[in-house]
């Protein structure tokens, strides 16, 4: 079963993850009312049950600074095949981290951490461990990544906490086949889930 971004983020929020402030709308008339609850700039993303790679479709618009920008953004996203609505999010700044789970045929769930964002595949900065493992291994995983060199002690701790939360999730929900949190925005003491998707089998 594929979980949409909204469903995945709601699920993560119920399971002790910090998730970015967000709202989902399906029509333009709700835009003005929703935007009053956010500070600019905001991010607008396409939402749809069949949409997996939003960025490749041009389904993410950054730096929305006004209602007029948002109305134009809505019209643009509406034209993409599979459109069901728009997710509006607070735009956060910080270091972009990838954390996730992939179920393997031979070894069970593998947990990963590394450089996140739209260039994740190009950077190939990822460390893996087969679940289960302890906090010491979590620290080793983080230290194996290039991005760890620019993380402060507090930021490493925030990433560590999210990886431990993922381990708890796997224990609680063994049917998790895939979980991609990309990016997890790390800034100082906080690590915030900004985009996520999940598959249960």
Topology:
Layout: E1 2-3, H1 5-14, E2 22-25, H2 31-35, E3 42-47, E4 60-64, H3 67-78, E5 85-90, E6 95-104, E7 108-115, H4 120-123, E8 126-130, H5 135-143, H6 153-172, E9 176-187, E10 190-193, E11 196-200
Antiparallel strand pairs: 1-11, 2-5, 3-4, 3-5, 6-7, 6-9, 7-8, 9-10, 9-11
Please give a handful of descriptors for the protein shown:
201 residues, alpha+beta, Dna Ligase, domain 1, D-amino Acid Aminotransferase, Chain A, domain 1
What does this structure look like?
By secondary structure, the chain is an alpha+beta fold. It folds into two domains: about 20-90, ATP-grasp fold, A domain (Dna Ligase, domain 1, 2-Layer Sandwich), CATH 3.30.1490.20; about 95-200, D-amino Acid Aminotransferase, Chain A, domain 1. Helices cover about 30% and strands about 35% of the residues. The protein has six helices and eleven strands. The protein has helices at about 5-15, 30-35, 65-80, 120-125, 135-145, 155-170; strands at about 1-5, 20-25, 40-45, 60-65, 85-90, 95-105, 110-115, 125-130, 175-185, 190-195, 195-200. The strands form two sheets. Strands 1, 6, 7, 8, 9, 10 and 11 form a seven-stranded antiparallel β-sheet that branches. The relative contact order is 0.19. The mean pLDDT is about 95.
């Amino acid at each position: 079963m594929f979980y949409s971004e909204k469903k995945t983020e709601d699920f993560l929020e119920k399971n002790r993850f910090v998730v970015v402030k967000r709202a989902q709308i399906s029509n333009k008339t709700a835009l003005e009312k929703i935007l009053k609850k956010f500070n600019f700039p905001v991010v607008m993303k396409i939402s749809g049950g069949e949409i997996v790679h939003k960025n490749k479709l041009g389904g993410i618009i950054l730096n929305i600074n006004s209602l007029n920008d948002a109305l134009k953004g809505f019209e643009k996203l509406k034209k993409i095949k599979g459109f069901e609505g728009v997710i509006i999010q607070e735009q956060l700044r910080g270091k972009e981290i990838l954390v996730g789970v992939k179920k393997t045929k031979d070894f069970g769930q593998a947990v990963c951490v590394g450089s996140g964002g739209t260039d994740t595949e190009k950077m190939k900065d990822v460390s893996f461990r087969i679940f289960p493992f302890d906090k010491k291994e979590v620290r080793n995983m983080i230290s194996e990544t290039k991005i760890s060199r620019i993380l402060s002690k507090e930021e490493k701790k925030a990433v560590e906490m999210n990886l431990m939360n993922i381990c708890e999730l796997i224990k609680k929900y063994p049917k998790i086949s895939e979980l991609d949190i990309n990016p997890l925005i790390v800034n100082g003491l906080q690590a915030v889930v900004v985009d996520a998707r999940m598959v249960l089998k």
